[in-house]
Sequence to fold (154 residues):
Amino acid sequence: MSTISGNLILPVQAGASCALAGLIWFVQVVHYPAYRYVGAGEFRRYQTHHQWAVSWVVGPLMLVEMAASLALVVWPVEGIGRVWAGVGSGVLAIIWAGTALWQVPLHTRLLASGAQGDVERMVRSNWLRTVGWTLRAALSLAMIWWGFQPGVGP
Fold:
């Protein structure tokens, strides 16, 4: 792997994607289902804290991941090319769309209502992001493997 995108950007993308994959699995399996057990009197405070705290953890990782993903499309890694970087960016676009179109509005509604139906919708709709970040992590690790194995890439 001789290019700057292979030596620097690809590992940065993989790190961000893997961190987000791990985080989203925790959120999907532990954190979001725990909303079911927050009492009505504490729900608004809990949701306010969640929105504030998660933004500080997820926001920077998502921005780094997006920048690295786009950089790999602009400066493709030798032996991998733009196709797989483009596939990864496409998956990332789906994740961002799911976040903007479903998760953010659901969190906003939860802050106002605390309705358990919204909690259930949030858990179900978050599977899109869970699967997406899992795919991104696997693809980014595969791209590192391909980049370090001359002649083994896709």
Remarks:
- The chain is about 85% helix and 0% strand.
- The chain has a mean pLDDT of 89.
- Helices lie at 4-34, 40-74, 81-113, 116-125, 127-148.
- The chain has one domain: 4-148.
